[in-house]
């Protein structure tokens, strides 16, 4: 198990250490709902997306979207999504993976058909283009109290975000400070050995049944992710919304992942 000081602190203690309002809200929501589960709602109509959200909403601290896969994306959709995020108490994370120069990403974040900054609390970016990508996104997101994650590692087989690239991603976040960048998408405690700052680590590629798909996705269990690797939030997509058995089965599977994720966190703190 990683020994980074962050992994031995409670989410409550960590909330107090974050200058960014969205980071604090994420940690406080996790505590309130005893949930380190983010459900990834990768369906292609607004109606289906909102239905999944209603089913899993009570069990999650966060809902993740890919707004560009929704056929009938509209302002009405985001309005209802934001309303549900308040009613059911979760944070919205648009998994946009920005990857361009600062000026372009600032426009992609604020404008176009999706106007991501207007409804999404959290988004993410590849560090590939250099620190200008943070500056571009920050000009739009920081005044709104939004937050950003950098992609330091990925879950897919053969990806290039490893070794020195990952180390440089952490270093770029440290140079930016924690006012807007609040953590990483990563598979492990990538901040290990790079300072004692508190960073949130959100981890996709989580499944209790399957070990992967036919297109390179790789799954680990909530325990492997939270207890063994010291990550903070588990991101689960098809393992929850794709389960057979209708509405009740989806709800029950979300609860199962919530329980598994929380148990692994308590085990990490030595509460078990
Ligand atoms: P799945 O159905 O649990 O495999 O979905 C995983 C989600 O997380 C999906 O939306 C991906 O785009 C996202 N993801 C990922 O799987 N791996 C990564 O490294 C990153 C994002 Br970054």
UniProtKB/TrEMBL annotation:
Top enzyme class: lyase
Reactions it catalyzes: orotidine 5'-phosphate + H(+) = UMP + CO2
Active site (record annotation): 95 (for ompdecase activity), 97 (for ompdecase activity), 100 (for ompdecase activity)
Positions of the Orotidine 5'-phosphate decarboxylase domain: 36-253
Tagged with keyword Lyase: yes
UniProt KW keywords: Decarboxylase, Lyase, Pyrimidine biosynthesis
Pfam families cross-referenced by the UniProt entry: OMPdecase
Gene Ontology biological process terms in this record: 'de novo' pyrimidine nucleobase biosynthetic process; 'de novo' UMP biosynthetic process
Entry binding sites for substrate: 42, 64, 155, 217, 237-238
Similarity comment text for this entry: Belongs to the OMP decarboxylase family.
Name of the protein this chain belongs to: Orotidine 5'-phosphate decarboxylase
Taxonomic lineage from the root: Eukaryota, Fungi, Dikarya, Basidiomycota, Agaricomycotina
């Amino acid at each position: 198990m990683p020994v980074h000081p962050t992994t031995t602190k409670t989410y409550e203690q960590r909330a107090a250490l974050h200058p960014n309002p969205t980071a604090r809200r994420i940690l406080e929501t996790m505590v309130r709902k005893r949930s380190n589960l983010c459900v990834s709602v990768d369906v292609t109509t607004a109606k289906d997306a909102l239905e999944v959200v209603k089913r899993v909403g009570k069990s999650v601290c966060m809902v993740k979207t890919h707004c560009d896969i929704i056929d009938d994306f509209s302002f009405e959709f985001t309005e209802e999504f934001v309303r549900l995020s308040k009613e059911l108490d979760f944070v919205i994370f648009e998994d946009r993976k920005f990857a361009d120069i600062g000026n372009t990403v600032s426009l992609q974040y604020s404008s176009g058909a999706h106007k991501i900054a207007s409804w999404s609390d959290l988004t993410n970016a590849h560090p590939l283009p250099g620190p200008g990508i943070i500056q571009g996104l920050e000009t739009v997101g920081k005044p709104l109290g939004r937050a950003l994650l950098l992609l330091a590692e990925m879950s897919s087989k053969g990806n290039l975000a490893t070794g020195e690239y990952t180390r440089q991603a952490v270093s770029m976040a440290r140079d930016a400070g924690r006012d807007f960048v609040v953590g990483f998408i990563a598979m492990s405690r990538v901040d290990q050995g790079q300072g004692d700052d508190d960073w949130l680590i959100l981890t996709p590629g989580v499944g209790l049944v399957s070990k992967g798909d036919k297109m390179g996705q790789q799954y680990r269990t909530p325990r492997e992710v939270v207890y063994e690797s010291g990550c903070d939030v588990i991101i689960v997509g098809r393992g929850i919304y794709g389960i057979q058995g209708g509405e009740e089965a989806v709800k029950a599977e979300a609860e199962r992942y919530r329980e598994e994720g929380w148990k692994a966190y308590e085990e990490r703190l030595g509460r078990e």
